[in-house]
Specification:
Elements lengths: L3 H12 L35 E16 L8 E4 L4 E5 L8 E6 L2 E5 L5 E13 L8 E7 L3 E6 L4 E5 L2 E6 L1 H12 L3 H13 L2 E12 L1 E15 L1
Helix pairs in contact: 2-3
Amino acid sequence: MIPAIGILAAFVWTLAPPKSRIGASPSARNLGSEPALALAASPPSSGGALSLVASEGAFLDTPLDLVPADITVAETLETPVAVTAQVPKDSNRTHLFMAVSGAHSWHQVPSSAPYRLTGSYRVYLSSSVLPPPGKFSFGLGLDAQIDDDVSTKGVTYFRDPAGALGLDPKILGPILSSNFGLSQQDALQMARDLIRSDITITLTVRVRMRSVEVFSLENGFVQIWGD
């Protein structure tokens, strides 16, 4: 397995070689009951070059396991926080770019129900500029599969994908409006305030699974760039 930190480094290299500018213009999409934001990879229309403002990782001594109560019923479970990163306040910042990763595995088992594994890295943003409860979250999608026929095999899967997203007022505005019931204008202003503020970012994994015995998260990494 390629270490997660290596995947993040490789991802950044893909965007730009050393001493070049790294930029991102985000886009978003919803995937059913597990909303996940799309990757972003095009240069921003405004703002300067990005620099790393936060980088945290955790190699877990004990994996964070999710065990369903009944493998024949689709159940949504979420891990405890795997890693936390702190983005410092910057009154000149106009956008952020984030990359997250976490090595994980799960074990499909034979059962009387079809196999299912869907989910996302769950990214929580907390800031004093947000209305109560002072935080919101969005998902960066993981590999997903939903079978029609009953599960007839036992298979252990290993994955270590990296998810990335650019955050600017255009993307954050609708998310904040939906979460806090704000008008479009108020949401855009709050998005600007949020990007400039001190932000706590935490990472979990949320999955919906069936005919799966256990899902295990082994590590977590969060890296944030800002202009």
